[in-house]
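[step 3/7] fold_predict: job queued, chain A
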Amino acid sequence: MRRFLNLKFVVVVIGALALCSCQVNTVVTIDVAQSGAGSITVNLIADSQVVAAAPNLADDLRFDDIKAAGWVVTRPNKTVDGGLQVSLTHTFDNAEQAGVLLDQLSGEYGPFKQMSLTRSGKDTDSTFKLDGVLQVDGGLNAFADSQMLKIIGGAPFAENIEQAGLDLGKAMTIDFVATLPGVIERTTGIDTENTVTWRVPLDGSEQSVLTTSRNTAVKATIARLIAGFFKFLLFAWLALMAVVIVSVVYKRRRTSSTPSE
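[step 4/7] structure written:
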């Protein structure tokens, strides 16, 4: 899957944008555990005006290619205000896999570029680094299949939207959210405890996502220290018992070997 939005979904939505003041919101969330494993979730919400302009959108969506790539799809469902919501989730076993999945959500025109997640250090004291660029530098081209662009020679409905004077940035939003273990040491996003949020620019500009967090597993460290201390005590006790036993045996032998008067 080379686009984080299903092609049919995007084509219909963009067409609706050319006809009315619709809103499409997308949130891409990466949730990383202490081990470096985690999940990536894509949540797309089209408002009621999009659904009104394309009433059969939910039935027309196809997710075979997405599922084949290992993504778990939550069937499109209606929101409280009459919109449509679709969720896609994929787990990863380590930091390297996370970078691959983020690359699957992008393409030549963005929005995720040069994305990587790394984990260094020990299990009880590790540093996580999330790096890359958020950029949509192809306008509507970023939301259409590359083969389709070759056939039609450009993004679908681009001329309609340009003639209507619509601002793509006002019609849709893309947020990137990262939850990393430990304490955020530095970030280019908005930090709320250990969760960082960025708004993807849709005007061609770049947004860095450089973020580092340090996770010190205090409980695990203390547990290891206590375990080591008790092992030391056990070793010392065994050594002491060995000395006592040897001493007792030695005294008994001396007593038995001493002739009685």
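[step 5/7] annotate
Residues 4 and 105 are 4 Å apart (CA to CA).
Residues 1-9, 147-158 have pLDDT under 50 and may be disordered.
exit 0
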